[in-house]
């Protein structure tokens, strides 16, 4: 049975590891991209992915956060310009450098990266074990990738792969060249910049070219030696054949004389046989038994000969097989049948995968493998959320009465959940940490000490409908409500607010860390996909640490939430709405008291008070 994913663990995702300009969201694909001055990381998760899958997710986030903090992207662009081999080798070296830095700064990141590598090394689906017959490019990449992670990052799961890569490379190249590879490996431990990683990658690729030339020279020398040996063998065979021909000429006369005498003797025997033929007819009866005995003994003799031949042949074949196996083992201590893992179907070398692209692909594969299409999944059905935060304010005016109404309702909710505990205490009982001796009881004063619990916090994800049905007038009311609600929540200490505008697409227009008024919004257009947009909003709420998580929808009521509401309750997320427009259409699946209809903008403060008090008081 697959273990369900608890979204509570996602609050530990390292969105702060990469810095204030880094955002982690949950979607249906895994990638890391830069949008403007900010970075967006999306991880593919569904409710059936296990803790083992989360090891890959946590490691991927910490790895990409290391790139965001420490990688020089101009040097990466230069590596792309120099070709795929340079780019890949630079990325391998840079991965080791930035993981070492992020692991020193955050111990939890080092632990996540170790768990990720341990998960990847459980089998050979991601990184194959090095073999003697692998290509030189893949061997050198394995030398730095596996060796660097084991020796420099202390990722012990890489030990077997690192040891094999070192020993195989040592046997494949000369001592001088292996020493040069070792010097480059020592430089890897002293890298201080991405430009240094690019320079080292170019040096390593130059050494690979030297190693290839060295192998070609060795192959040419071996071919010349084989040709010389073959020529010498042919000369020896010709000399032996000339000697045999002269010997056969001398023996020809003797052989002819012997054959002539044998022929005469055969004629004499033939005449005697004719004379005896008549006498054999009478002895057939007595001769049958002897013939049967003779045939039986002949058959036994033939069977014994065949059995002996089979045994000898089998032994010879076993010895030959054993000898061949010993020869193979003497050539390589590894299984040559595994070499195919390092070549594709076209015979090209397979280079070990790097973390950035390889882990993203592995997470997406696990996501697709664990998705159950028979159930609605809040992450599989979510939209891919874009990010477009404008620097200038939107055109919608703020309703100050609605702002005050929202703040009053939320403050009352906070007070109702802030408990006070009063306890009597005695003054004079201690002085500077020492209890006073012989202090008259009359000098002690009793007073009350009040201790307040922490004020509850909340994260509110506003969803503004900007579909075509909101045009031409309905969007004004919804936009005013959105701008007013943003201002109200930003004025409260323990509340965070984010805004997503949606139609048949989904765009983040106001992030949790964004300060000031609501930015410019797009004009209404397109269809209405309320359900998938709600799933995207739930993903944006998943890694928040506030006590209460709320999705607040501002729409004309066109949407089906029958699958959204149960999933939201399962993950502790509350959903409410305020409806606008002349149609008074209700959201399917949401209770009527949680989606009041605002037919008059003068009643907007009343709508905020009603829906916020209702939804926040629910457990």
Task: Please provide a written account of the structure.
This is VWA domain-containing protein. Residues 457-616 form the VWFA domain. Residues 217-233 have a biased composition (Low complexity). This protein is α/β, with parallel strands linked by helices and 619 residues long. Among the domains are: 7-213 and 351-366, no CATH class; 400-411 and 455-616, Rossmann fold. It is built from 16 helices and 13 strands. It has helices at residues 51-70, 73-81, 84-105, 107-120, 136-151, 159-172, 175-188, 194-250, 252-280, 284-331, 355-370, 400-416, 474-490, 530-541, 564-570, 604-616, and strands at 22-27, 31-35, 38-44, 386-387, 420-427, 430-431, 434-435, 445-452, 458-465, 495-502, 506-510, 548-555, 573-579. It has a six-stranded mixed beta sheet with strand order 4-11-10-9-12-13, with helices on both faces. A three-stranded mixed beta sheet has the order 1-3-2. Helix 7 (175-188) packs antiparallel against helix 8. The longest helix is centred in the middle third of the chain and has 57 residues, at 194-250. The relative contact order is 0.09. Residues 1-12, 258-334 and 428-444 have low confidence and may be disordered.
């Amino acid at each position: 049975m697959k273990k369900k994913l608890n979204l509570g663990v996602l609050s530990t995702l390292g969105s702060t590891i990469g810095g204030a300009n880094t955002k982690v969201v949950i979607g249906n694909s895994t990638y890391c991209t830069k949008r403007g001055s900010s970075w967006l990381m999306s991880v593919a998760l569904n409710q059936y992915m296990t803790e083992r899958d989360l090891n890959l997710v946590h490691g991927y986030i910490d790895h990409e956060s290391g790139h965001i903090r420490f990688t020089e992207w101009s040097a990466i662009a230069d590596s792309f310009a120099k070709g795929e081999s340079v780019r890949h080798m630079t990325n391998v070296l840079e991965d080791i450098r930035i993981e070492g830095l992020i692991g020193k700064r955050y111990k939890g990141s080092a632990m996540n990266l170790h768990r990720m590598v341990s998960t990847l090394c459980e089998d050979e689906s991601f990184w194959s074990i090095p073999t003697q017959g692998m290509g030189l490019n893949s061997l050198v990449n394995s030398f730095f990738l596996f060796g660097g992670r084991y020796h420099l990052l202390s990722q012990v799961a890489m030990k077997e792969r690192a040891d094999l890569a070192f020993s195989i490379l040592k046997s494949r190249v000369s001592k001088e060249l292996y020493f040069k590879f070792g010097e480059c490996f020592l430089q890897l431990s002293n890298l201080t910049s991405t430009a240094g990683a690019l320079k080292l990658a170019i040096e390593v690729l130059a050494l690979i070219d030297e190693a290839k030339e060295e192998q070609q020279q060795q192959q040419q020398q071996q071919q010349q030696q084989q040709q010389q040996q073959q020529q010498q063998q042919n000369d020896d065979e010709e000399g032996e054949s000339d000697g045999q021909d002269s010997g056969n000429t001398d023996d020809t006369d003797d052989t002819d004389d012997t054959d002539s005498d044998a022929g005469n003797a055969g004629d004499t025997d033939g005449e005697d046989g004719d004379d005896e033929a008549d006498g054999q007819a009478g002895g057939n009866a007595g001769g049958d038994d002897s013939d049967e005995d003779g045939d039986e003994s002949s058959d036994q003799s033939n069977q014994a000969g065949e059995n002996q031949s089979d045994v000898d042949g089998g032994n010879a074949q076993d010895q030959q097989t054993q000898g061949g196996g010993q020869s193979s083992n003497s050539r390589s201590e590894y299984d040559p049948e595994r070499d195919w893992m390092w070549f594709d179907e076209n015979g090209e070398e397979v280079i070990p995968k790097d973390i950035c692209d390889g882990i993203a692909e592995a997470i997406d594969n696990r996501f697709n493998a664990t998705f159950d299409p028979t159930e609605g999944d809040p992450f599989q059905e979510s939209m891919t959320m874009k990010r477009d935060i404008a620097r200038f304010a939107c055109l919608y005016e703020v309703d100050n009465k609605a702002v005050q109404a929202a703040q009053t309702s939320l403050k009352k909710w906070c007070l109702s959940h802030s408990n006070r505990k009063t306890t009597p205490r005695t003054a004079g009982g201690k002085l500077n940490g020492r209890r006073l001796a012989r202090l008259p009881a009359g000098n002690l004063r009793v007073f009350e000490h009040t201790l307040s619990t922490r004020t509850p916090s909340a994260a509110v994800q506003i969803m503004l409908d900007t579909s075509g049905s909101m045009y031409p007038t309905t969007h004004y009311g919804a936009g005013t409500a959105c701008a007013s609600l943003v201002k109200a929540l930003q004025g409260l200490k323990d509340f965070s607010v984010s805004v997503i505008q949606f139609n048949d697409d989904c765009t983040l227009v106001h992030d949790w860390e964004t300060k000031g008024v609501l930015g410019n919004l797009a004009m209404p257009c397109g269809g209405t996909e309320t359900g998938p947009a709600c799933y995207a909003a739930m993903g944006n709420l998943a890694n928040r640490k506030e006590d209460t998580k709320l999705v607040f929808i501002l729409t004309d009521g066109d949407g089906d939430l029958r699958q959204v509401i149960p999933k939201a309750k399962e993950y502790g997320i509350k959903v409410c709405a305020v409806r606008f427009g002349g149609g008074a259409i209700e959201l399917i699946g949401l209770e009527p008291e949680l989606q009041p209809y605002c037919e008059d903008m003068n009643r907007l403060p009343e709508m905020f008070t009603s829906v916020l008090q209702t939804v926040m008081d629910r457990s």
